[in-house]
């Protein structure tokens, strides 16, 4: 089964949780694609110590997810 995550928000907590879910899906053997759209492309600016979006996306890449901006 393939999953597609479309991130179209710049809410840090929402993006962080979606990235965590995408990583869990990859660890369970799913094929996962993530697409940043609209304000979602601001993920680097809103990543923080509390909501480490950049760290989650680095793990996503390491796990073999397909990331599109």
Give a concise summary.
The protein is an alpha/beta fold.
Describe this structure in words.
- With 69 residues, the chain is an alpha/beta fold.
- The chain contains 3 helices and 3 strands.
- The chain has helices at residues 12-27, 43-46, 53-62, and strands at residues 2-7, 31-36, 66-68.
- Strand 1, helix 1 (12-27) and strand 2 (31-36) form a beta-alpha-beta unit.
- Helix 1 packs parallel to helix 3 (53-62).
How do the helices and strands line up, and which of them pair or pack?
Layout: E1 2-7, H1 12-27, E2 31-36, H2 43-46, H3 53-62, E3 66-68
Parallel strand pairs: 1-2, 2-3
Helix pairs in contact: 1-3
CATH class wording: Alpha Beta
Can you list the strand order of the major beta sheet?
A: 1-2-3
Which CATH architecture would you pick?
3-Layer(bba) Sandwich
Distance between the termini: 22 Å
Number of strands: 3
Query: What does the average pLDDT come to?
Result: 95
**Whole-angstrom Rg:** 11 Å
The named CATH superfamily: FAD/NAD(P)-binding domain
Proportion in helices: 40-55%
Number of separate structural domains:
1
Topology-level CATH name: FAD/NAD(P)-binding domain
Strand content bin: 15-25%
Which key features would you list for this structure?
69 residues; alpha/beta; FAD/NAD(P)-binding domain; three-stranded parallel beta sheet; 3 helices; 3 strands; globular
């Amino acid at each position: 089964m393939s999953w597609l995550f479309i991130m179209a928000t710049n809410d840090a907590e929402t993006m962080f949780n979606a990235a965590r879910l995408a990583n869990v899906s990859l660890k369970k053997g799913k094929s996962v694609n993530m697409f940043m759209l609209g304000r979602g492309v601001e993920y680097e600016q809103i990543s923080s110590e509390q909501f480490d979006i950049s760290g989650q996306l680095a793990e996503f890449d390491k796990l073999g997810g397909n990331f599109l901006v």
